[in-house]
């Protein structure tokens, strides 16, 4: 009998600068923000905006933020993704799977990872964008990039894209375990779930039959809004909160990291901090479940900057639940996600 080939697994995260030098941060921001799924305006105005305004003015400031984040092993987003890949490789059957890792922007590239899989003569590729909630700017962009590369291949193997995994029992269990560990050390008055934001326009563009109106529609999650990023975030909060038995009136969902002047999805995390402080709330536990690895957005923005803001307004505890990184339950989740598609 002819032996069929292995299945290739491609884990993809966002990407991070090569170093904290302003030039490297500028290069990263240029590649990232020139993606038409991230800044979704026509290419010429996008080029002007990115190259003449955002990259020159933002790079020095962002480089300073990256310096607060950087470790001996470099950027946490990169080394946690490398660790995850190494651990997933260990738990998957090596006679059946070849595991690779790539970043949507900068390095290691998706192209180099796909070449590795092609050389391994895989019969099928499973692509797992490491973003729990689907957004055109993240998962959509990964799918776009993979297709752009494989369309040049003579033989295109079967490809399966995992587009969201917010309800996977092991994803929820991993957050439950991390949350419990924090809650055993400290009591909290509120539980804040802060997700990466998106321009409202991008939600509207993805809304089928105009279902999504960026309001109470996101309080329900089902076939009508299964790809609405905002609805997926609210659903993620509900599922994790239920696992931890958190009282509904103490749980809030909000969105961080607005870029530019256009309206982004609300409520904004910064407004939520002001509201909590004005209500006299003192102890807040913060989850960031749009990310599966510690990165600039979690460690610096939520863990340092928002913490300072809350404390300046009279708050006493602002504690960030660490991300999934390469923890055992999360590794088991990735194993199951992959095996279920093999
Ligand atoms: C849930 C995942 C993410 C979504 C959705 C997303 C959308 C999005 N992001 C920007 C602009 C920036 N994001 C930046 C950093 C960053 N973003 C994500 C994830 C999502 N982005 C991660 C994991 C990171 C951190 C990377 C790291 O190296 O640690 C940045 C760069 C940092 C900075 O200069 O502040 C920008 C800029 C837009 C415009 C957007 C949707 C349209
Ligand atoms: Fe981002
Ligand atoms: Fe919605």
UniProtKB/TrEMBL annotation:
Belongs to the ferrochelatase family. This is Ferrochelatase. Fe(2+) binds at residues 196, 297. Catalyzes the ferrous insertion into protoporphyrin IX. One of its GO terms (molecular function) is lyase activity. InterPro entries: Ferrochelatase (IPR001015), Ferrochelatase_C (IPR033644), Ferrochelatase_N (IPR033659). Pathway: Porphyrin-containing compound metabolism; protoheme biosynthesis; protoheme from protoporphyrin-IX: step 1/1. Keywords: Cytoplasm, Heme biosynthesis, Iron, Lyase, Metal-binding, Porphyrin biosynthesis. Gene3D superfamilies: 3.40.50.1400. Its EC number is 4.98.1.1. The lineage of its organism: Bacteria, Pseudomonadati, Bacteroidota, Cytophagia, Cytophagales. It holds the Pfam family Ferrochelatase. It is found in: Cytoplasm. Its main location: cytoplasm. It catalyses: Fe-coproporphyrin III + 2 H(+) = coproporphyrin III + Fe(2+); heme b + 2 H(+) = protoporphyrin IX + Fe(2+).
